[in-house]
Specification:
A five-stranded mixed beta sheet has the order 2-3-1-4-5, sandwiched between helices. The chain is elongated, with a radius of gyration of 31 Å. Helix 7 links the parallel strand 4 and strand 5. The protein is an alpha+beta fold. Helix 1 runs antiparallel to helix 2, helix 4 crosses helix 5 and helix 5 crosses helix 6.
Length: 232
């Protein structure tokens, strides 16, 4: 658009003196028509360029809104809504012959005491620190998100019951062994459920949640599997 305006301005500078001196000349009418056509083309180019710019802005805003609607504001992990959609997709792939996967639910042991003793700012920092440590464990193996409050969910693909329990144990050990900023430490409890062919999202989550509470009843700072995992 800028180049077109520059050429048009140069064209005016060249042709305008001719039109002033030869307004009734042989080529005057043709020159004026040419100016009008050029101006119309530049106006059309301007509106087209403006439309493209507005369209890009709308696309960027739509992408930002989609990202915000699927991202937890505090930890920058996928939020519950996005994790639920990923879980549904995993179940659909598994039902159609895809590879197995495991659901892991974990939360911070006695998190309420952290908020009560040190304040919600420290509680938020603790959640962010846990998100960072968990991301390191699950990097390249599946999806990790904040399920709600101090509870997180991990979806680990292509894994069986024994390996899923091993990954969950490693997560608990790494969190317990890595002090937070300020020297404090936390522990987590984790429940593991491996998908079955006839699973839906509700019963799979119920089994993972039951395993999480089994870990709490067993003393916390540990991972527990669903009943079928123990039986195997």
């Amino acid at each position: 658009l800028v180049v077109s305006l520059g050429i048009f301005a140069l064209f005016l500078c060249v042709s305008l003196p001719y039109l002033v001196r030869h307004i009734d000349g042989r080529y005057a009418n043709f020159t004026i028509q040419l100016h009008v056509v050029c101006a119309a083309m530049i106006v059309t180019l301007y509106f087209f360029s403006s439309y493209q710019h507005r369209l890009r802005l709308v696309q960027v805003q739509a992408d930002q809104l989609a990202r915000l609607s699927n991202t937890d504001e505090l930890t920058r992990l996928p939020n519950r809504r996005h994790m639920a959609s990923l879980l549904e997709a995993e179940l659909a792939r598994f039902a159609n012959g895809g590879r197995g996967f495991a659901v892991m639910l974990f939360d911070i042991d006695h998190f309420k005491l952290v908020n009560d003793r040190f304040g919600h700012g420290t509680g938020d920092a603790t959640l962010v620190a846990l998100a960072t440590r968990a991301t390191e464990v699950f990097l390249g193996t599946g999806a990790l998100g904040r399920w709600g409050g101090d509870e997180f969910m991990a979806l680990v693909s292509d894994i069986g019951p024994v390996d899923a329990k091993r990954v969950a144990d490693a997560l608990c050990a790494q969190v317990a062994a890595t002090p937070l900023p300020g020297g404090r430490s936390i522990t987590i409890s984790c429940g593991v459920a491996v998908a079955n062919v006839d699973d839906n999202i509700d019963n799979l989550l119920q089994r993972a949640d039951a395993a999480l509470y089994a870990a709490k009843r067993a003393g916390r700072d540990r991972a527990e599997g669903c009943p079928e995992l123990k039986a195997g």
